[in-house]
Every structure is written in C-alpha cells, then in structure tokens.
Amino acid sequence: MSVSELKERHVAAIETVNSLREQLKQKRRLLLDTDIAGYAREQGRNPVSFGPTDLVCCRILQGHTGKVYSLDWTPEKNKIVSASQDGRLIVWNALTSQKTHAIKLPCAWVMTCAFSPAGQSVACGGLDSVCSIFNLNSPTDKDGNLTVSRMLSGHKGYVSSCQYVPDEDTHLITSSGDKTCVLWDITTGLRTSVFGGEFQSGHTADVLSVSISRSNSRMFVSGSCDSTARLWDTRVASRAVRTFHGHEGDVNTVKFFPDGNRFGTGSDDGTCRLFDVRTGHQLQVFYQQHGDDEIPHVTSIAFSISGRLLFVGYSNGDCYVWDTLLAEVVLNLGSMHNSSHEARISCLGLSADGSALCTGSWDTNLKIWAFGGHRKII
Amino acid sequence: MEGQHSVSSLEEPKGDEPAAGETSCSVPRTGPNKFLSKHRMVAAITLLQNQINFIQEELDQLDTFGESSIVCEELLSKVESIPDPLLPSTQGPVNASWDRWFKGNQNSRRRWI
C-alpha cells in the first residue's frame, strides 16, 4: 500500500473513531434518566445536617517545614505517613501526635507516599522517577537515617502517586508522568505489568493518580492530564477495561467508593464526578460556585466509610464536605474559625475505621478531624 | 500487537484534546523534509482500529446495562446501611473506639484546637 493510501486509511479511521465516540456519548446520555441527587430527592432524602461543633479538628500534626504533598493512613488504626516539600517522610501516631519516624529522602522532590498494609514499610516517589521503599524496622545509619530497602526503577517520568495492593505487602501500583501505571513486585524490584504506554491503548498524557479497589484488588482506576479516568484489570495490561470521559481538565485525583462499585474523580475543571464501574454511567457531578471569578481546581478527595460524605480539597484552600447522595455542600472545613488550614489542602485521607479524616496542607501541617457532637443511632 | 515503532512523529503539538480522543495521532505530515515510515503509519492505524473495536464493544454493552436510576437505587440503599462515625445520624452498631480522639477529657467529648 502506498503512503498516500495509508494516509487516507488513517484519516478514515480517525473519522470513524470520532463518529463512534459521538454515538457513545448520545447513547449514554439517553440512559442517564436521573443522577443520584435527583433520585435521592425523589425518595425524600434530606441533606446531612452538621451542627457548628460536630466535625472538629482534634489534632494538629506539626513537624514538616515545607508544604505537605501527600498522606496515607495505615490499615491499623492510628498511624499516618506524610510526604513534604522539605524532603522528608514523617510517620505519625495520629492519636498521640507523636512522630515515630522522620525519614530524610535521598531525593527531596517527593510527590506521593503510601503505607504498606501490614504497616511495616512506607513507599514514596516523585521527580526522581523512582518509587523508594523504606522498612520502618530497619536499623538506621550513622546519621540516624533509614536507608532505602528497595528502589523500584523503570518509569520514564515522575512518580505522581503510589498505593500498595490491599493485603499485599509485596505489590504496589504507581502512576507516572510517562503516561503509564505500573504494578511492581517489591521482592524482586521488577515490573509485573505496565498499563498504557507507547504501543498500548492507555492514557495519552501524564497520569496523576491511582486508586485500587478494596473489594476487588485486581481493579484500579487512574486519572490523567488527558481529562479521562480509566479502569484497569491488573490481569490485562494491554488496554483499559473502560475509559471515563466527562471532565474538561486534568483529573488530579481518583478514589474508589467504599463499596468498590463506584469511584470518584476530582479535576482542574473544578468538579468532582462519581462514576459507576460496571456500567460506566456518570452518576453525579459535584460543582458549586466558590464566589471567585476563577474556578479553583480539585486537588484531593476522600469518601467517608459509608460513602455518604465526600471530602474535597480545592486549590483555593476550601475543603468542602459534600453530601454525596444529595450533591450539596454541607460544611466547609476550609472556613472553620481557628481550625482551618492557612493554605491549600493538598491531600486527604480517612482512617481505616472511618472515625477520623486527616487533611494535609501547603501550610506544612496535618490536621485530624473527627465527630465530636451528639450521634443519633438509627 | 505490532507496535515496535514509535508513533510519536504522528503527534500534533500539545494543545486541545486530539480529534481521535484516545490517541494523539493526527493526519501524518509529509513534506520534502519529513519522511514518515510506512511502518509508523500502519502502527497508528492499528491503534485506531483497536479504538474502534473498543468503542463498538462498549456501544454493544450499553444495550444490556439499563438506566442510571437502577444504579442510583442500589447505591442509596448501600450507603444508608453502613455505620459511619462521621455522620450526625447513622446506622448502628456504634464502635466505642470511634470516640478515641476525644478520650482523656472526662468532662466533655468536644475538643477545640
């Protein structure tokens, strides 16, 4: 076949893709007879109502000297690892506010951190394109520093996010500026699978976030600068199970819903969205004007343990608490007098039992929030 | 899949989302100074063909999925059945350790910092 014939086929193929995508969009639109908020209102549900002293800041974790970029709770109740612009990881006992480890990183440009399921190791990654593992029980060197116990090398771009596979201390998944996600075997330091990449049907821009399903640890979602989120099956690296369109900007954060059948996303377009894994339906858009002219970006999200609350951190320092079912903002942790962070909230996470929310901020602090009011049991 | 050759030469400069959506392939540029290998074009076309198959698959699947209201119903009942320590009003049972963040002050469960 000649070059010009190939060119024609290429143009024809693009036209077919575009036309099919439009058909898909239309067909999906027809199936969206309601969103969650519409359905919940119809069923007579009212928004969650917080009193002024219900959700309170009960701990401040101070110690970082730079912006906090990432945090992760351990599955065991009270420990948190945080990563900061100051080039350190700190491991905290959130209940006592004590620091149990302060790890000086070989590469200061860290973007993400994660706790292993058994709580014995932490992982981090960043601009060095490497995911480094530290064993918290290892002896320290002469300067009192923990040394790296394993380096996971292979990404051709920055490591934006990492998460251990639930209940598996030996595997984790990273996302990267090289447009791929990778499943790693920590024991060998080798890549088990690469999701996306140059010759595969994956993300077409930097991948910024991953979240692994707790109910089915073979499934994970990724969010990217290509404005999409993608669902992957770790057994099939060659293509995503499904691609979720809708956002109009970088998808900075993705998080599985507690039941594992839905996931949330947050984007530079200022919205969060809830998607259904099985059908691909976009179930809800969460957007509220913040009062400024510029639309603040969503930096981080987390669901409460039932999924009823969606906590969202924004680039302007707001931290909205959304009622997921009614799609209404019921609280703003970013405007609570004397308790709020003084800068952008960059990361959020719930404790394993759902009793506490940790927020990390560019103001260098982490804060723990819990329910201190009167609880009504139904 | 044949993908031994880079398709990067077919990429447009970064800008709006490319027309083809899933890939960043555009109409290959040719000219006196740009020779594009046939292999690269075939690789790009193969990628696009995969996209076409995936989208067609999804279109077919949609016939079996049903409306969003079905999912909403399931979601609502699921969410309301799970005890949630951060809600003012929630299903039981309560776990006493939920309030460990406020222990140590015998007089009040409330803390302000």
What count of helical segments of chain B does DSSP give? 2
Structural class, from secondary structure content of chain A? mainly beta
Report the oligomer.
heterodimer
Order of helices and strands of chain B: HHE
Low-confidence sequence ranges of chain A: none
Mean pLDDT of chain A, as a whole number? Answer: 94
Q: Compute the gyration radius of chain B: what is it?
A: 28 Å
Question: What is the average of the pLDDT values of chain B?
Answer: 72
- Which chains share the greatest interface? A-B, 88 and 75 residues
Report on the biggest sheet of chain B.
none
| CA-CA gap between termini of chain B | 59 Å
Main β-sheet of chain A: number of strands, strand sense, barrel status? 4 strands, antiparallel
Tell me the fraction of residues in β-strands of chain A, as a range.
35-45%
Q: What is the general shape of chain B?
A: elongated
Proportion of residues in helical segments of chain B: 25-40%
WD repeats (chain A): 61-102, 152-194, 200-242, 244-285, 338-369
Family (chain A): Belongs to the WD repeat G protein beta family.
Keywords (chain A): Repeat, Transducer, WD repeat
Organism (chain A): Salix purpurea (Purple osier willow)
Task: Outline the fold blueprint.
The complex is a heterodimer of chains A (378) and B (113).
Chain A: H1 3-31, H2 36-42, E1 55-61, E2 68-73, E3 79-84, E4 88-93, E5 98-104, E6 110-115, E7 121-126, E8 131-135, E9 150-152, E10 159-164, E11 171-176, E12 181-185, E13 190-195, E14 207-212, E15 219-224, E16 229-233, E17 242-244, E18 251-256, E19 262-267, E20 272-276, E21 282-286, E22 298-303, E23 309-314, E24 319-323, E25 328-332, E26 345-350, E27 356-361, E28 366-371, E29 376-377
Antiparallel strand pairs in A: 1-28, 2-3, 3-4, 4-5, 6-7, 7-8, 8-9, 10-11, 11-12, 12-13, 14-15, 15-16, 16-17, 18-19, 19-20, 20-21, 22-23, 23-24, 24-25, 26-27, 27-28
Chain B: H1 38-65, H2 68-80, E1 89-90
